[in-house]
Amino acid sequence: MNFKGELDMKKIKLSLRIILSFIFIISIILPQKIDSAEEVDGGLNLSYLDNKLSHIGVGSSHTVALESDGTVYGVCSSCTFGQIDVTRWKDIVQVEASVRNTIGLKSDGTVVTTGDDSYTSTSRWTDIVQVDITEQNAVGLKSDGTVVVAINRSSDFPVENWTDIIQIDIKSSTIYGLKSDGTVIATENSATEVVENWTDIVQISTDTALVGLKSDGTVVAYGPTLSDDALNIIDSWTDITQVSASSRLIMGLKSNGTVVAAGELLNGTPNDVQKIESWTNIVQISAGSNHAVGLRSDGTLVVSGLYLHEEAKYDQFKNINAFNLPSLSGIESANRIVSEGT
């Protein structure tokens, strides 16, 4: 072999060493990256409750909020039923409030309640991924897409045959269920007629009024307490990522962290909607009959509809869990996010 041949052979061997070294490095790094991706993906699946469920709950006279450590803090202007007796709660991933009650979902899929309730059956619930509550009843969504109900007053909720549900919402006499295909069902025939033509829905919210968020960021709404002007305003909304309904008010959270509103608060003033629409850096909203609350990205709360001396109480909220809250768009039964609303 001449000198040139030896040089070529050395170059080939060197190239092979470089290639083999590169393959060796990739073989080490790539599995780690894949494992990390699986951990992230698995983390999303396991933490979807934290990512998608309400961290603030608003009743008629009280508000509860989920702090970053899984505990719950509450304030109340007139509470005589123990609605904010939540100081011992821990490992909470969702909170909801009604007129006289508060409910919390724990990270292990069990449920706690407080207030004027006798929801003894909720203590036996397991594998729950979302909850809601009214003065009369509580409802829970299970991870397999079925629904359970705890009845505190005389009611009839035929949900035994419901399947493939990804979100639930309840008012006093009706439970609404959002299905994974974007349609909505209800336990009352009259309510079913309202929502039977709704499609592409990713989130629902109800009180006396009912609102649905569509996958394109537009909104559909119904409510005998909503004026035609309010409904026309809602029809014009775009770029919405979360909605919240009370008896006479509909709120919409936009992707830029601002809020739009239509209607009015009970015992409120004409300035309430204007004040709500001045909020910025909002990551979640909740409308009550007498006041509305917004969760800011820094973990503080803003409120509208209360007298000034009541609003001062909300300055005590400093560490509310404001992370990973694009919207309340629903979860498939396999714990997969349907829509992040962004």
Cα shape: globular
How many domain regions? Answer: 2
Query: Helix coverage percent of residues?
Result: 10-25%
In the CATH hierarchy, the architecture of the largest domain is 7 Propeller
Please identify the top-level CATH class of the largest domain. Answer: Mainly Beta
In percent terms, what proportion of residues is strand? 25-35%
CATH homologous superfamily assignment of the largest domain? Regulator of chromosome condensation 1/beta-lactamase-inhibitor protein II
Q: Decide which structural class fits the backbone.
A: alpha+beta
Order of helices and strands: HHEEEEEEEEEEEEHEEEHEEEHEEEH
**Unreliable residue runs:** 22-51, 323-342
Give a short account of the largest sheet: 3 strands, antiparallel
Work out the number of β strands: 21
**CATH fold name of the largest domain, please?**
Methylamine Dehydrogenase, Chain H
Major sheet: arrangement of strands: 1-2-3
Quote the distance from N terminus to C terminus.
67 Å
Number of helices: 6
Pfam family, one: RCC1_2
Protein name: Regulator of chromosome condensation (RCC1) repeat-containing protein
InterPro entries: Ran_GTPase-activating (IPR051553), RCC1/BLIP-II (IPR009091), Reg_chr_condens (IPR000408)
Keywords: Membrane, Transmembrane, Transmembrane helix
Could you explain the architecture of this structure?
Keywords: Membrane, Transmembrane, Transmembrane helix. The protein has helices at residues 3-46, 48-52, 189-195, 228-235, 271-276, 308-311; strands at residues 56-58, 62-66, 72-76, 92-97, 101-106, 111-115, 128-133, 137-142, 147-151, 165-170, 175-179, 184-186, 201-206, 210-214, 219-222, 240-245, 249-254, 259-263, 282-287, 292-296, 301-304. The chain is globular and about 90 Å long. Strands 1-2-3 form a three-stranded antiparallel beta sheet, with no helix packed on it. With 342 residues, the chain is of the alpha+beta class. A hairpin with a 3-residue loop joins β7 and β8. Helix content is 22%, strand content 32%. Mean pLDDT is 79; it is low at 22-51 and 323-342.
